[in-house]
Write a structure and sequence with these properties.
- The complex is a heterotetramer.
- Chain B is mostly helical.
- Chain B has 20 helices and 2 strands.
- Chain B has a domain at 275-487.
- Chain B has helices spanning 3-12, 19-37, 44-63, 80-107, 113-130, 134-152, 159-190, 195-204, 212-228, 237-244, 247-272, 277-300, 305-326, 329-356, 372-375, 377-391, 397-411, 415-441, 455-473, 476-485, and strands spanning 69-71, 76-78.
- A two-stranded antiparallel ribbon of chain B has the order 1-2.
- Among the domains of chain C are: 293-570, no CATH class; 581-652.
- Chain C is built from 27 helices and 2 strands.
- Chain C has helices spanning 7-26, 29-55, 85-108, 115-134, 138-156, 163-196, 204-210, 219-236, 244-247, 253-262, 267-274, 276-281, 283-304, 310-330, 334-368, 384-387, 389-403, 409-423, 429-454, 462-465, 473-488, 503-518, 527-554, 558-565, 567-574, 579-626, 633-652, and strands at residues 62-72, 75-83.
- Chain C starts with 6 loop residues before the first helix and ends with a helix.
- The chains are: A mainly alpha, B mainly alpha, C mainly alpha, D mainly alpha.
- Chains A and B meet through strand 1, helix 6 and helix 7 of A and helix 14, helix 17, helix 18 and helix 20 of B.
- Strand 3 (517-520) of chain A pairs parallel with strand 1 of chain C.
Chain lengths: 528, 487, 654, 100
């Protein structure tokens, strides 16, 4: 089981999709139910990863799978090369975790030929999981592109009125980047071959070892970085995001925000940065600047939005700015902050999109001015909305804080002191735009008669939200669950990039002089 | 006339070297008679017979895989290279025939000669692929072209078809003139028309490479091929002819003859004009970029899907040229693989068009297929797969093909060429997507009547899909084959 | 031994969760309110137990670590609590006053729709506040720090259907966020500063121990402390970030009492006390703190002079009193600051609750008479002392206390501060003058309040005047207790000069002593001066009271005259110096404008414009190239020939 | 004495004439004739060169060319007739229905 767990997990949704194709199109309930079951099973399959302690002990790749796939003597070798480490682990978990939620969210939202929708969702899941677990650049690229196709149709078929523009823009914009990356991939391969490095296939672990000359790294980083920057998206390559988000159906937005955007950040951490460490320092100032600009810019633009969904979309730009800033800090706090912030963004923003979906299903509009005073009609909704809002603002005790705090602190301790200071103002703006939106939507008196008859959340909708809320607080209160498994991988990554992961003596409350008595509460386990 | 000369000649004649084309031509003639003596409008049996003929030919030519046969004093050779391209052409012809029967009935031209002509074209293509003497190549080229002129203008009373035929004819003949003149000049310099002979001569006295007559001859010769593969600036006939010709023929032209042309092209360039590599690469660099760019950019504005695919085929010729520019093993293997892939994906797309087209095909426009995704889901999915493959989206074969060609370019150090190539395919995304936008994101204006679904065409589509997907997921074996076919 | 410390914030948390989730089902106000109050009382008991245990203990600093929160690289953050005299005092105040206010709220909030919501929030606030004071490292403190911010957001916005309430809540949170920005920056800098010396920590005890690694008066420590001070300004409503506090009066009165008078707003003072060692090392910062404090004390007092809303007057007085505390911190009178914090908690809570009782009564009356006048406007009151005697007496006592009349709690703390601001080597006589004048104004406007509310003839609408009842016991009991504390609360800190042995200062000595002696901060001066100053400040206070009496009792037409005479000045202070308008002009509107521009002007037009532009150009080129395909045979032939000629020519002649 | 160069020159001139004819003339028949001229100039070249290099390949080639030309003539004329039936014209500018 364990030796081909990843394959099972990755291709199970695809299998499910094949079955979905044979379910009669008019049997809506069966279609959705079946898809839900498939995604849930996929989640269950992936669970052993989360509970496996090996990640906490060693930073390398685990659950390796290696088969020769394409081998054309003298030309190429591409391998079916899978593996997962502390960095990809939680992203994989996030994916398998968010999918059932996305499916549930479609229950009422998608009437028009749900068959296609479900099939595409499952195909998408395979693509995403594959991209996270593949250790062979070629394989990665295939999954990476594979993700585009279903998302394109999800936006284009089930999207809003401006969907065609959004879908095509999304597809071409992201494809341009990845095509350039393709050339870069090929180049790296041939460089490796010609430099006589012992490589079989496009395995990144071999690529990590070969040290390319600076000028080559420069261009290659540019190609990779550009492609990933589009996906993240980093300012000024972000404009496809608001369109895609606003037009996409709820499930689409959720997945897009929760997972697809992470592909970009993950790409930096897994490929662009460790593959071209020498070129990295050259670009960090630029990239950090863009991240900071993204934070401020995204916040300011989000502040003035009239469409709730667009507001959330722009807030994503800001959030991912924090992620990137943390990652580029090149130290443990920053990395950890960035990584955890990826998860947070998945949870919080995913939840926000679900929330927007809820009110959209009820009112078929997302204009802030249409609402107001909803808290009277929908108290439960109001509470959940409030919690998610504050998690997105980054209130301590919720997940958002842990991520932002560590990312900023990392950036500050790292070389990016002033960037961090500027970025910290984003904390203020976040409060401004989120609370203003919340006030205009939920607070005040019901002015719009259309809102008089609004129903509060149904049991299904609450069930959809609950798991997300659990993680909002879990990550906020005890993030070590995640850090413990992340840290070794990150340390390895940083050392590999030639940066000392800054492990100074890990002090301990017991280490404080005996002048002060220290006691441990009975419940002092798990403390180190 | 002394005896041993004749003796020698007799020995040199090695019929097994031309056996496949011989078989095919034989079948063609027989079928000609069959179709003459069969009742009017009854052509289905002819179609199936010709299909069988192709299968037989395929078996024959596969028989000589890995045992090269030279014949006619080395002016014809049936090596793996030839076999590979012959197989490509045969597959193309087979798909054509499969999709033709129903089509001809619908368009009201149930004529048996059609099939024989397809067979003769294929025969000519096989000659081109196996010709090692400019003379034989020329013959194959002409057999192919003349039959295609007729096929392009096959719908006698449709002006579009006539026009297509005539344009193809005139420009074809015109380019033949250049090609021949080139051959003549080469002959004048080297005293032979054998490709190998030319190479030997140049090796013997290197001064030739600076000989104006030689260079000019070589380039004139190449222009002839450039015309056949529709590379800019010799591409201009393509859109008109493709649009005007009967759809199956368009499909066939875009795959089979193009492959054959590339076969001869490669053989002549790599072997015969090896000495001119630097110059040729330099000029083809530009031509490749030009071809890709023109093809893709002009395709952006097209309304008619057939014409759009015509332009896309121009751009694909451009991609193939990239492989030739690379001038290394992987590049050339890439071209071969690409031609095979292209046969499947492009003919598959055309097969779908054949099915959804009404009589007269006025509805094969991008708006014409609006809402098809819901009216004809299966066909729509099929077309989407082919289009994704044409875009070069993994995991389809189109991606693998592009990958190898660009890999060749990168390996040879033409990184900017590769970059321009991928940027071009980024542009191409738009017009391929446009079709899918219309199929899935728009609602049908009017219900396009019952698709004249028939088994044969369906089979051809299925074959194409299988080909596209299999070669996409496990390109290994096919690449290996192409590699063996290289020299 | 102190391991049950975690129970203190835990009880309210439980209460909050239970009420929050089940309150809707429970409905019964007795149960809900009772539970909440009980929870507070439990944590009060635990607090007491720990407090007394600490009194008897020789070791004065105790850390209790529950578990690890974040451990990443060299950053190790625990869920840890810290009990030392300072936090001990704070938990006593928070839990004690908190319990009383919970009790009060049962009566005050009676009949509210969101009764359960209110108590859930209130408990949550208590929990957060206790985390704040008990946290043994800056991060746990920050949880409380933001947590109280959240709760004040929720409670200010409790009447969320009122737009003003929503705005006030948002304003409070956002302004606090500005402070938090400072807090975070300070934290980062501190962590890095100490880390570069080899000690990576955010733990207060360790910070205190390793502070000496930093250079006294150096840039680093100054920056750190200034950043933290910015945070304190946000939380404790000091200039320039005080504007949210008056608006915060939109919340129910108990909230104003608990959050915006007794506890939350003092968090800034507490934080400076916590980091006293660092502040002591940065004279520049100390000076800034002192000046800002004094300025705020004066400035807020001026605004207090002219307000008519009973709660707003108290709000500005709170701001002003907080100014005093910061003044104290700034001049090194840490213990005096905390002392004033405590006494202020007593009398200001009492004042707010008293005003609440008044409002409650007025509201009841208006409700009875179906009128919609403003129950908070003092101009509708007057002569209430007969109607609600208990409220009146407690209120009066507290007013005397806040005015700094001897023998009342406020006197001792305030006088201590004034003395230090004069005599401390970090102080200055100007600071003393400002403080003294502010004290005078305080006395004035507080008594103005009393006179307008409780004395004179009743100005309430005739239909309502006879229906103003004394409030129920749940309201009056807390009033009485707090009133009592307002009187005697000061006796634990009678300065030596008045024959006392300043117990309070000694109690806090373990926390502040080190810093004070290490940097030789002390108030020097002859006893004569001290007596003199004391006398003067008392005199000023009495003058203030007298003026109030003449203006509002003796001849009530005077105020009108004054306002007419100094119309400009009056309008200025009546409109709070137009500070809100200024901020809107300086920050709010520009932000909105920039945002709109970036969106409509830049994002859509430029950034996206480029993207679409590329697509457009591409299409354009395509459309252009199309026309080369003219359809004429000749053009095609020409193209071919040209191609041939160019290619061949390129070689033959090139 | 007439050298091979004269032949080559002549054939080159003929070839150019043919090319120019194709480019300039409108009548389909005439254009086709011009193409024939081109082909025949090529034949001339072959023969001259075959004499020059001294082997028969060139002359063999000429036979092929002539045959092919004949075949092309047949097909081409047939196409033109078919077109003429529909359009009553053999002016090449009349077939530009397919464009852009």
């Amino acid at each position: 089981m364990a030796d081909n767990l990843l394959s099972l997990m990755t291709f199970f949704p695809l299998l499910g999709m094949l079955f979905v194709l044979f379910i009669p199109r008019d049997n809506d309930g069966l279609l959705k139910g079946f898809t839900l079951v498939v995604t849930l099973i996929t989640f269950v399959i992936s669970l052993p990863l989360a509970f496996d302690n090996v990640f906490a002990t060693s930073g390398g790749m685990h659950y390796r799978e290696f088969h020769e796939w394409i081998n054309i003597g003298g030309f190429f070798q591409m391998n079916y090369n899978l593996g997962v480490d502390g960095i990809s682990l939680w992203l994989v978990m996030l994916t398998t975790f968010i999918m059932p939620i996305a499916v549930l969210s479609t229950w009422k939202a998608v009437e028009k030929n749900s068959k296609g929708f479900m099939a595409l969702l499952l195909l998408l899941e395979t693509g995403m999981l594959g991209a996270f677990v593949s250790l062979d650049l070629f394989l990665f690229y295939i999954f990476w592109e594979l993700m585009l196709i279903p998302m394109y149709f999800l936006i284009g078929i089930w999207g809003g009125k401006n969907r065609i523009y959004a879908a095509v823009k999304f597809f071409i914009y992201t494809a341009v980047g990845s095509l350039l990356m393709l050339v870069a991939i090929i180049f790296v391969y041939y460089y490796a071959v010609q430099s006589g490095a012992l490589i079989n296939g496009f395995g990144i672990q071999e690529f990590y070892k070969l040290n390319l000359p600076y000028h080559a790294q420069y261009w290659l980083f540019l190609a990779f970085g550009f492609s990933f920057a589009i996906k993240v998206p980093m300012f000024p390559l972000h404009t496809w995001l608001p369109d895609a988000h606003t037009e996409a159906p709820t499930a689409g937005s959720v997945i897009l925000a929760a997972v697809l955007l992470k592909m970009g950040t993950y790409g930096y951490v897994r490929f662009a940065m460790p593959l071209f460490p020498d070129a990295l320092p050259t670009f960090i100032p630029l990239l950090a600047t863009l991240s900071v600009v993204g934070i401020i810019y995204g916040s300011l633009v989000a502040m003035m939005q009239e469409d709730v969904k667009k507001l959330v979309a722009y807030s994503s730009v800001a959030h991912l700015g924090f992620v990137m800033l943390g990652v580029f800090a090149m130290n443990m706090q920053g990395m950890a902050g960035g990584m955890i912030q990826m998860i947070n963004h998945g949870v919080s923003t995913g939840a926000l999109f679900l929330i927007v979906g809820f009110i959209y299903e009820r009112r078929h509009t997302r204009m802030i001015t249409e609402f107001g005073g909803l808290a009277h009609k929908m108290p439960v909704f109001a509470t959940i909305f409030l919690i998610v809002t504050f998690s997105s603002i980054g209130l301590p005790g919720t997940n958002g804080f842990v991520g932002e705090f560590l990312a900023l602190m990392g950036a500050f301790e790292g070389g990016l002191r002033w960037y961090a200071v500027v970025a910290t103002t984003g904390v203020i703006f976040a409060a401004v735009y989120m609370l203003w939106m919340y006030q205009r939507v939920m607070m005040g008196t019901v002015t719009n008669p259309a809102n008089e008859s609004l129903k509060d959340l149904s049991a299904r909708e609450v069930v959809v939200m609950l798991p997300l809320l659990v993680f909002v607080f879990w990550i906020g209160v005890y993030p070590n669950t995640f850090f413990d498994k992340m840290n070794p991988a990150m340390e390895q990554l940083l050392t590999q990039m030639g940066h000392k992961p800054a492990i100074v003596e890990v002090h301990h409350p017991a280490a404080i002089p005996a002048a002060h008595a220290v006691e441990h509460a009975p419940a002092a386990h798990g403390h180190n | 006339m002394d005896a041993n000369l004749v003796q020698e000649a007799i020995q040199n004649v090695n019929l097994s070297a031309i056996m496949p084309s011989l078989v095919l031509s034989g079948f063609g003639m027989v079928l000609l008679l069959v179709s003459v003596f069969s009742p009017r409008g009854k052509t289905t049996h002819v179609a199936w017979l010709s299909f069988i003929a192709l299968i037989v030919t395929a078996l024959v030519s596969l028989g000589s895989w890995n045992n090269p046969q030279a014949g006619f004093a080395g002016s014809v050779v049936l090596d793996n290279f030839a076999t590979f391209f012959s197989m490509t052409c045969i597959i193309a012809a087979g798909l054509t025939i499969l999709m033709s029967d129903g089509y001809l009935k619908r368009e009201g031209y149930p004529v048996g000669e059609y099939y024989t002509l397809v067979l003769f074209t294929t025969a000519g293509a096989m000659w081109m692929a196996s010709g090692t003497d400019l003379m034989t190549i020329f013959l194959g080229l002409e057999v192919l072209s003349v039959s295609l002129y007729v096929l392009a203008g096959f719908f006698r009373d449709q002006t579009r078809s006539n026009e297509a035929g005539l344009k193809y004819f005139f420009l074809g003949a015109f380019s033949t003139g250049f090609l021949l003149y080139g051959v003549a000049l080469l002959y004048g310099v080297t005293g032979t028309t054998k490709i190998a002979g030319i190479a030997e001569y140049v090796q013997a006295n290197p001064a030739t490479t600076t000989n104006i007559m030689f260079v000019a001859g070589g380039l004139l010769l190449l222009t002839g091929f450039l015309f056949k593969v529709a590379a800019a600036p010799f591409h201009m006939w393509t859109p008109d002819v493709y649009q005007g010709a009967p759809t199956p023929i368009t499909a066939f032209m875009s795959a089979g003859p193009k492959a054959a042309a590339f076969a001869a092209f490669i053989r002549v360039t790599i072997i015969g004009l090896d000495s001119m590599q630097a110059d040729i690469s330099a000029v083809f660099w530009i031509l490749a970029v030009l071809t890709m760019t023109i093809g893709n950019f002009v395709a952006l504005g097209q309304k008619d899907i057939k014409r759009m695919l015509a332009y896309s085929s121009i751009s694909h010729a451009g991609y193939a040229l990239v492989g030739l520019v690379a001038w290394n093993e992987i590049g050339l293997t890439g071209i071969m693989f690409y031609m095979l892939v292209y046969t499947f994906m492009n003919m598959g797309a055309f097969a779908v068009l054949v099915l959804i087209g009404k009589k007269g095909e006025e509805n094969l426009t991008i708006d014409g297929v609006a809402g098809m995704g819901y009216k004809r889901p299966v066909l729509a999915i099929a077309l989407s797969i082919f289009l994704f493959s044409l875009m070069g989206m993994p995991p389809t074969a189109g991606f693998a093909g592009k990958f190898y060609i660009f890999a060749g370019a990168v390996k040879a150090g033409y990184i900017w060429l590769a970059v321009l190539g991928v940027l071009n395919s980024a542009v191409s995304l738009y017009y391929y997507l446009k079709v899918m936008v219309s199929m899935y994101f728009k609602d049908a204006e009017e219900d396009f009547g019952w698709v004249s679904m028939n088994a044969a065409t369906a089979i051809s589509i299925v074959i194409a899909i299988v080909g596209v997907l299999v070669m996409g997921m496990v390109p290994g074996p096919f690449m290996e084959m192409a590699k063996l076919a290289g020299f | 031994m102190y391991s049950n410390l975690w129970l203190i914030p835990f009880f309210p948390l439980v209460g909050s969760i239970i009420n929050g989730l089940l309150g809707k089902k429970i409905k019964n106000e007795k149960v809900i309110g009772g539970l909440a109050t009980l929870m507070m009382f439990c944590s009060f008991l635990v607090a007491c137990q720990n407090f007394f245990r600490l009194m008897g203990d020789s070791v004065k600093t105790h850390q209790v670590v529950i578990g690890s929160w974040m451990s990443v690289g060299n950053l190790q953050i625990d869920w840890g609590f810290l009990l030392d005299p300072l936090s001990a005092v704070m938990i006593m105040i928070v839990t004690g006053v908190g319990t009383l206010i919970h009790l009060y709220s049962i009566g005050y909030m009676h009949g509210e729709v969101g009764f359960y919501r209110f108590f859930s929030y209130l408990n949550l606030f208590a929990c957060a506040m206790l985390m704040l004071v008990l946290g043994n490292n800056a991060l746990v403190m920050f949880i409380g720090w933001e947590g109280v911010g959240l709760c004040s957001y929720l409670l200010i916005g409790y009447y969320f259907e009122k737009k003003s309430a929503g705005d006030a809540a948002k304003k409070a949170f956002v302004v606090n966020r500005v402070g938090d920005f400072g807090f975070l920056c300070g934290l980062f800098t501190l962590f890095w500063a100490l880390g570069s010396k080899g000690v990576w920590t955010v733990n207060f005890v360790e910070i205190t121990e390793n502070a000496h690694l930093l250079q006294t008066g150096g840039l680093l420590v100054t920056v750190v402390t200034l950043c933290f001070f910015l945070g304190a300004c946000g939380k404790s409503a000091q200039i320039p970030l005080y504007t949210w506090l008056p608006d915060a009066m939109e919340g129910p009165t108990p909230v104003s009492a608990l959050i915006h008078a007794a506890t939350m707003v003092t968090a800034g003072v507490y934080m400076i006390g916590r980091m006293n060692i660092l502040f002591a090392m940065a004279p520049t910062t100390m000076m800034t703190v002192a000046i800002v404090g004094a300025a705020t004390a004066f400035f807020a007092a001026t605004i207090g002079l002219a307000q008519n809303d009973i709660k707003r007057v108290l709000a500005y007085s709170t701001v002003s009193q907080l100014g005093y505390m910061f003044l104290a911190m700034g001049v090194g009178a840490f213990s005096a600051g905390i002392f004033h914090l405590m006494t202020h908690a007593f009398f200001k809570a009492c004042l707010f609750l008293g005003s609440g009782s008044v409002i409650h009564g007025m509201h009841h009356a208006y409700h009875h008479a179906h009128l919609h006048d403003d129950p908070q406007d003092m101009r509708n009151m007057g002569g209430l002392r007969k109607k609600m005697p208990i409220t009146f007496i407690t209120f009066l006592v507290s007013t005397i206390a806040i005015s700094g009349i001897p023998l009342f709690s406020g006197f001792f703390s305030k006088d201590e501060i004034l003395w230090w601001s004069f005599g401390s080597n970090r102080g200055h006589w100007l600071l003393w003058i400002i403080g003294a004048v502010a004290a005078g104004m305080t006395a004035f406007y507080m008594f103005r309040l009393v006179f307008m509310t409780f004395f004179g003839e009743q100005k309430t609408d005739a239909r309502a005047k006879d229906h103003i009842p004394e409030s129920p016991l749940t309201i009056t009991i807390p009033l009485m207790i707090l009133g009592l504390l307002a009187v005697i609360g000061g006796y634990i800190g009678i300065p030596a000069i008045l024959g006392g042995s300043n117990r309070f200062e000694h109690w806090l000595e373990p926390v502040f002593g080190e810093a004070l002696e290490m940097h030789h901060i002390a108030a020097h001066g002859a006893h004569a001066t001290e007596y003199a100053l004391m006398g003067i400040s008392v005199a000023i206070a009495i003058i203030g009271i007298f003026v109030a009496w003449t203006m509002y009792i003796k001849n009530p037409e005077l105020p009108a005259k004054f306002t007419a005479k100094f119309a400009g000045a009056y309008r200025l202070i009546f409109n709070k110096w137009f500070i809100d308008e200024l901020y809107d002009f300086l920050f709010v509107n520009p932000c909105k404008r920039i945002g709109t521009f970036l969106w409509r002007g830049f994002d859509v037009k430029v950034v996206d414009g480029v993207v679409n532009g590329v697509a457009w150009v591409t299409k354009g080129i395509g459309a252009g190239l199309r026309y080369t395909q003219s359809g004429y045979l000749h053009n095609y032939a020409v193209a071919m020939v040209v191609g041939v000629v160019v290619i061949v020519g390129y070689y033959v002649f090139g | 004495m007439i050298s091979v160069h004269h032949y080559l020159l002549l054939s080159a001139i003929l070839f150019s004439i043919g090319t120019l004819g194709v480019l300039t003339r409108r009548n389909a028949i005439v254009i086709f004739m011009c193409i024939e001229v081109m082909l025949n100039s090529v034949n001339l070249t072959f023969i001259a060169l075959s004499k020059h290099v001294g082997n028969m390949d060139g002359q063999v080639f000429v036979f092929f060319v002539m045959t092919v030309a004949a075949a092309e003539a047949a097909v081409g004329l047939a196409l033109m007739i078919a077109f003429f039936k529909n359009k009553e014209s053999i002016d090449v500018d009349d077939f530009n229905m397919l464009k852009w």
